[in-house]
Design brief:
mainly alpha; three-stranded antiparallel sheet; 3% strand; 15 helices
């Protein structure tokens, strides 16, 4: 492996390339956005200037999506789920029943793109159509793999309620809808993360919205990005009781393993999304029986992390309290990353619109570190 901070060796043919680069583009400013401000030092997140906590308390996912797409705050906005086109349904039925939900969702978005006319430039109508389609596709796949028939959208239901209805076949309770809607709001947008950047790169070539979002789903599938609140569930099951927490968590840290649901590349303060979701989880009608344990274990974990890393603030992240909310609304852990992707549709598509509005092809440079120019042997 080449030392990532090194520069290329001088050769007879080419002068030494001594430009520097930042591995992982860490700290590189790669664009401008008016969508979300992620203030990692102060632990604050705003969408178009509005605080995430206020949006969770007073908004709905449909209103937040509209805000991201247009800049206008209209709490009355509604976005019912949309039907799955026949060819897409046939594609979902053709997948193996043990396919990962993220693979099914990425495939569905790609197939959906093949059924649409998605002219350049991308539009808010395209964003609405895709954001309304994907919950139906994921719900359909979740039923098909269990041998159940998909449920048609109910146009009288707003997006999150419609998704739960199509997933389960019955009307969800209002508290359940409210909890998942809150999760969708906090998951809707988060700056230039890897999947959003992917969507912007794809858009910068003047490709279409479905291609950008299919690429973004592929990026989010990676465990370093999509995260795994399901691992938080496993972790708490292993802790078992608050009496055993200190010993178990100490063992994890002694082995230099990670405590799931803690730490973040940007946040040095408590993740405001975790704070919002903790409130939601505590207010749920059907909270998982381990929520109380999670709250007590969090205190122990934060104390141990502070002792071990006095110079680096490692706080609770969004995944920690996403886990009880998603489990509490009845999703199985293997659907957690796909649910995160559904929520992020609003942000991805808003970035597609923003990129297209001032488009310039994204094409960075690279430092060549291979052999100098030479003759083929023989
Ligand atoms: N548990 C234990 N130690 C940790 C944790 C953690 N959760 N997070 C960071 N550290 C420690 C590291 O071991 C490292 O210690 P060292 O310097 O002694 O080697 C130090 O803190 C810095 O670690 P980095 O990986 O460089 O920090 P970074 O801020 O880049 O990491 C990350 C961010 C990947 C999220 C990390 O905190 C982590 O692995 N957390 C656990 C997994 C998790 O919860 N992921 C979800 C993130 S939220 C999201 O993606 C939506």
């Amino acid at each position: 492996m080449t030392d990532p901070s090194s520069t290329a060796t001088a050769t007879a043919e080419s002068p030494r390339d001594d430009r520097t680069y930042s591995p992982g583009l860490e700290g590189v400013v790669a664009g401008e956005t008016a969508l979300a401000k992620v203030d990692g030092e102060r632990g604050r997140l705003t969408y178009r200037g509005y605080r995430i906590g206020d949006l969770v308390e007073r908004g709905t996912y449909s209103a937040v999506a509209h805000l991201l797409w247009t800049g206008d705050w209209d709490p009355g906005q509604r976005l019912p789920t949309a039907a799955v086109p026949g060819p897409v349904m046939a594609t979902l039925r053709a997948l193996p029943s043990d396919a990962k939900p993220m693979d099914a969702l990425r495939t569905a978005v790609s197939a959906w793109g093949a059924t649409q006319t998605l002219d350049w430039p991308p539009t808010v109508d395209q964003a609405r159509a895709l954001t309304a389609f994907s919950p139906s596709a994921l719900a359909a796949f979740a039923r098909i793999r269990q041998g159940l028939e998909p449920v048609d959208p109910d146009p009288t239901l707003d997006l999150v309620e419609g998704f739960l209805y199509q997933l389960t076949g019955s009307r969800p309770e209002p508290g359940t809808v409210r909890a998942l809607d809150a999760y969708f709001i906090v998951g809707a947008e988060h700056g230039f993360n890897a999947s959003t950047f992917t969507a912007r790169v794809i858009t910068s070539t003047r490709s279409d919205m479905a291609s950008a979002v299919a690429g973004a789903i592929g990026t989010m599938k990676g465990p370093l990005h999509g995260g795994a609140p399901s691992e938080v569930v496993d972790q708490l099951a292993k802790v078992g009781s608050v009496e055993k927490a200190e010993q178990w968590l100490t063992g994890v840290l002694d082995r230099h393993e990670r405590l799931m649901g803690f730490g973040h590349r940007v946040y040095r303060a408590y993740d405001p999304r975790a704070a919002a979701l903790r409130k939601v989880a505590e207010a749920m009608d059907h909270k998982p029986d381990w929520l109380e344990l999670a709250i007590q274990v969090e205190d122990v974990a934060l104390r141990l992390l502070a002792e071990r890393h006095p110079d680096r603030a490692i706080k609770t992240n969004v995944e920690y309290y996403a886990a009880p909310v998603l489990q509490g609304v009845g999703l199985t852990p293997d659907l957690f990353p796909a649910a995160f992707s559904l929520a992020r549709h609003a942000g991805w598509s808003a970035h597609v619109l923003e990129q297209a509005a001032t488009n310039r092809l994204i094409r960075p440079d690279v430092i060549y570190v291979g052999p100098p120019e030479r003759d083929l042997p023989g």
